[in-house]
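Name: Methyltransferase domain-containing protein
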Amino acid sequence: MGGKKASMSRTERILSLIDPHGYGLEIGPSHSPIAPKSEGFNVETIDHDTREGLIRKYRDHPVDINKIEEVDYVWRGERYPDLIGSHEKYDWIIASHVIEHTPDLIAFLRDCEAVLKPSGTLALAVPDKRYCFDQFRPISGLASVVDAHFAKRTTHSPGSMAEFYLNATSKGGKIGWDKNEVGKIEFIHTPEIAAQKMREAATQNTYNDIHSWCFTYSSFRLMVHDLFSLDLIQLSETESYDTTGCEFFIGLSKNGIGLRLSREELLHLTVQHD
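Structure predicted for Methyltransferase domain-containing protein:
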């Protein structure tokens, strides 16, 4: 099984976490859907703009805009059940490189669990902060995640903006890499930009797209376990794949079995892998 897992593509890993024959929702597929309608998936989508708007946004970027499909629900900050008009609708949800952008991580997970069927699965692809532009940022802790939820954050905090812009780096000209990358490290933004973005966040109630949260494979599994233990979410782990390249993959469900190791063991792994 280990050899089979090692040879799987990222798409295969994500799809292995769900029943792809069920009725699904993909959040933020944009120009790179994991489960495209064009390939026969029975899926609806949520994105931050219409297909036409996404095409305009990415027209001059080095991406294939022909992969941008019709958007079923344009998200403007609503709770997902309100946006979709239904609860417990989907057999699966896919969100690739989405959760780290959310100002309120707990609200995002609760929205997903609200529109999942009782046996449904949320499949996440999450960047490992050690192998992307977040490499010099600290791992996000439980306190910050819980505080953001009870503060009902809908935008990123001034501190998050300062930390992100001060520390974002490339390596070998890349913003995501694997553990064997040996290229030169360069900072992406100046301190002046960081200060500007911090002040804007403090004075303007507008959303700026950054990574609010930074995780490793072990720290994210611990976060999910702790949020479940605190009765803040109903989702627990079903299956997961350790970091490959710059990301890891995890399935969450209301009937997940949770960790297969003790919390203490996972704490030690989190510290070792920081």
